[in-house]
Amino acid sequence: MQFSALFTTIVAFAAAAVVASPAATMSSIVSEAEMAHFIATTDAELTFIGEPPNPLSKRHALSTTVMYCTKRIGNICGGSCTVYTGGATCLATPNTSCISATRDVGYCDEAGCNGNCEPMSLCGTPMGSGFCFTPQTMSILVSPL
């Protein structure tokens, strides 16, 4: 009887550790190096907006890079992708299927960063290369925090 209770407790703690894993909830927030690697190796059509990435800039610590794309093909994000680098703003992102960013951002189902907005750190459907499947995203809220 004691063995059964101990085994059940160990299994419960192991399950809680898997559920609470930070890697599982932060999968769509990537490092600047991971973002640069994806940009350098993707065959997606890229459009750049905002500031040019410059890690030596004084304001770089306040900068976020967000990539949002129009197509999901299996576990890959692609099609036409826009890469924004800059500070706090609300991005108009119609036809967005998936996003990735170097800091937590909010993705919203209405224009103007209105409607239901979810933090990307709580991505419900993580994809490969640090992307989150976000169908029907109409705007992305980039915060300085």
Backbone CA Rg = 18 Å
How far apart are the termini? 51 Å
* Spans where pLDDT lies below 50 across 5 or more residues: 1-26
Q: Give me the side-by-side strand order of the main sheet.
A: 1-3-2-4-7-5-6
**Average residue-wise pLDDT:** 80
- The percent range for strand residues is 35-45%
> How many helical elements?
3
The biggest sheet amounts to: 7 strands, mixed
Protein architecture, described:
This protein has a seven-stranded mixed β-sheet with strand order 1-3-2-4-7-5-6. β2 (64-73) and β3 (76-86) form a beta hairpin. The model is unreliable at 1-26 (pLDDT under 50). Helix content is 22%, strand content 43%. The protein has 145 residues and is α+β, with helices and mostly antiparallel strands.
